[in-house]
Amino acid sequence: MKALSLSLVCLLTQQAFAADSIRGFPDDEAKARAPFEQRLRATAEANKIREFMTRMASEPHHAGSPASRAVADFALEKFKEFGLEARIESFDALVPYPTQRVLEVISPVRYTARLREPIVKEDPDSSDMHQLPTFNAYSANGDITALAVYANYGLPEDYAFLKLKGIDVRGKIVLVRYGRSFRGIKPKVAAEHGAVGCLIYSDPRDDGYFKGDIYPKGPFRPSPGVQRGSVMDLPLYPGDPLTPGKPSIPGTPRLKIEDARTIQKIPVMPISWEDARPILEQIDGEIAPADWKGAIPVTYHIGAGPALVHLKVQADNATRQVHDVVARLKGSVYPEQYIVYGNHHDAWVNGASDPISGAASVLEAARILSKAVQQGWKPKRSIVFALWDGEEYGLLGSTEWVEKHRDELTKSAVAYFNSDTTLRGAMSIQASPSLEKFVEEWMRDYPDPATGKSLLESSNQRGFRAGPLGSGSDYTAFVHHAGVASLNAGFDGDMSGVYHSVYDSMRWFQYFGDPDYVFTTAFAGFMSTGLARMADAYVLQFDFGRVARFLRETVEDLRKHPKSRSIGWEALEREIEKVGLASKSFGSVMRPLEPRFASLDKAKLRQLNEAIFQSERLLSRPEGLPGRDWYKNQLSAPGKYTGYGAKTLPGIREAIEAGRLDEAQNQMKALSDCLGAYSERIRLATRLASEF
Helix, strand, or coil here: 610? Predict the structure, then answer.
């Protein structure tokens, strides 16, 4: 029934779609594309998504395992079956597996933690062999016994509160709950305040019974459920911790473990709320404030002690291979220019939702577009499909691939499209500002399977804004290191209850994630149409004016910060104004050309398009951001203490927030220099366009 409603939505939106223009195409050709794009989305099949997901999520397949290689081999076989040029590229990265995990309360009342997720009889995958135990990758090894302190979410402001209350965490083990920041921030901040160990638990207020029925009756985390995950210090750099900035291939020098900056300095372990409860019950001291209280049925105290905890964590710190699967659909006019669409294939366990829902959509998009080629479609540009390995550990496969191919990407990569999990819910897109207008038109012309309206209408946004790109998925290396305009898309849904657990299975997905595969199928069609639009455009759909708007709005926001009042903004604002003026000039030259796009000289169009997409590189600096030179993009980056969450104009913003005003002024000068070069590139594109 739901599949039928999706077809109805497509029909309902046909007339509205045909009435709108698409930038990059003459109006008559844009309107003629409507039936083509409708065929693309109609080609998406729920049965294919189900087939791909069932195969890839059938067994645990964590990075470095034979099962992960088997998933890569399956994807390679499918890409070749579709008629694409495809290969596997492998990298040797630090991929630790746990060898010892011990957690005990020594006193006042002894308790030994279970540290495992039990079988759910309704879910056969919960008993699969070769499950990776509950652990945090890139924890320090250690064997410690210390008093426990409860530190809420483990954020800097939580430690400020503890200090105000006279609680010293030096030499203690802190117990913190998941949420409000990337998990790798929690042990990092704990160590900065002198803690010697960190336990991260899942509180039922955040993802358990407090939100609804627990699995298997409902979608939320049961009491013994645990969120595995990497605690790599991602805001410093992603990828192999031992080869920062270089591909982890033979011949690349490797750091010693003790010199790797992204490995945590203290042992850290994820636990269930079932194992956290006996610790909380034995922490005394002042009662925690209301906003520190979770939903475990105990009184939350902050400590320190008298709970005395023994924590032992050991991992093998072994180098293992990760396997990226890369396939190419060759363009017919500008084959050297390409758009990349990627999703990861490795999971912490079976990973039906994260990441296989998105990985299946990559395979289905490749099948859809390959079929269109067989039916006569000839994309102007190449499209590269990628399934990355090692994402869960810290974006290993995508980062190493970008570091290996960076020169080629700089010259030829038009844009990077990313997906990860996609579930039943609303469309969510984060994007480089230059792609925001492209995304807006794309969403305008695609039906929402939930409402029958367009995705843009369903977003309920007045004045569409794409979210900024932080980190946490495979776009990171493309946008933040290589300077490739990027976007991250997916239908949002709440999988917090089984996130990174043994219960992220096909059963959970079919009951709670996307029953009947309606949204997953719609997403494959959505990505296919976006890729085809960018591959076929006579002139690439970058919008320089959206970059100027982003800059103006972000500076306006930064000016409101109380620490920013003594900073001079005038020079930066002049450069932003120049970007806006250059954008207007470019638009005024391009508009009269639009009806003639099809007749323009292809060699000159190649030059024009190179000027357009390579302009994005000028929004990065070789020197990178202060203290983290791997991150080169000046418009956004993951925050030092948010991890996944984006900081816009990060060099300036984080300096202001820290009160380092001289640094903020220097970062404004650096950004101004970037914007000067960016404006000049826009003017070059304008001159090239005026020569037609």
Answer: helix
Among 536, 559, 581, give the residue marking a domain's end.
536
CB 264 within 8 A of CB 289: no
Cα separation, 633 vs 649, in Å, equals 9
Q: CATH number, domain at 124?
A: 3.50.30.30
In this prediction, the residues of the chain whose per-residue pLDDT falls under 70 are 1-19
Q: Nearest Cα to 239, choosing from 263, 270, 265, 264?
A: 263
Beta-strand relationship, 229-230 and 136-137: parallel
Give the separation between CA 347 and CA 68, rounded to whole angstroms: 8
d(CA 606, CA 539): 9
Position 460 scores a pLDDT of: 83
Distances in whole angstroms, Cα of residue 606 to Cα of each of 199, 335, 545, 610, 689: 54, 11, 22, 6, 11
Q: Are 268 and 313 in contact (CB under 8 A)?
A: yes
pLDDT at 565: 86
Contacts of 308 (CB under 8 A, 6+ apart): 105, 106, 107, 108, 145, 146, 147, 148
SS3 652: helix
Residue 446 in contact with residue 529, Cβ under 8 Å?
Answer: yes
Spatial separation of the C-alpha atoms in residues 660 and 563, rounded to whole Å? 9
Residue 449 phi, psi (nearest 5): -65, -15
Q: Domain holding 394: CATH number?
A: 3.40.630.10
Assign 175 to helix, strand or coil: strand
Burial class, 256, CB count within 10 angstroms (exposed 0-12 / middle 13-18 / buried 19+): exposed
Tell me: the pLDDT tens digits for 149-182? 999 999 999 999 999 999 999 999 999 999 999 9
CA distance 476 to 631: 9
Total tally of structural domains belonging to the chain: 3
**Which residue type is seen at 588?**
S
Q: How far apart are CA 585 and CA 680, in angstroms?
A: 12
The structure's pTM equals 0.96
Output DSSP code: residue 196: S
- Residues 509-527 have pLDDT tens digits of 999 999 999 999 999 999 9
- For residues 389 and 529, membership in a common domain is answered with yes
The strand pair at 334-344 and 308-315 is best described as unpaired
Strands 486-491 and 427-431: antiparallel
Angle subtended at Cα 410 by Cα 405 and Cα 414, rounded to the nearest 5 degrees:
105
Residues 26/594, Cβ–Cβ less than 8 Å: yes
Q: What is the DSSP string of 305-327?
A: -B-EEEEEEEE---EEEEEEEEE
Share above pLDDT 70 across residues of the chain, in percent, rounded to a whole number: 97
Domain of residue 110: give its range. 98-317
Residue showing tokens 């270089």: 246
d(CA 85, CA 53): 22
- What is the reported pLDDT for 15? 37
Q: For 464, left (φ over 0), alpha (ψ -120 to 50), or beta?
A: beta
Task: Compute the distance between CA of residue 34 and CA of residue 415 in angstroms, rounded to an integer.
Answer: 23
Name the domain boundary from 506, 536, 566: 536
Write the DSSP assignment of 204-272 as a string of letters. HHHHSTTTSPBTTTSSBPPTT----EE---TTT--S-TTSTTS--STT-----GGG-TTS-SS-EEEE-
Alpha helices in 305-422 (DSSP H): 358-374, 391-394, 396-404, 406-412
> Which residues, listed in sequence order, are joined to residue 239 by a DSSP beta bridge?
none
Longest CA–CA separation in the chain, Å: 82
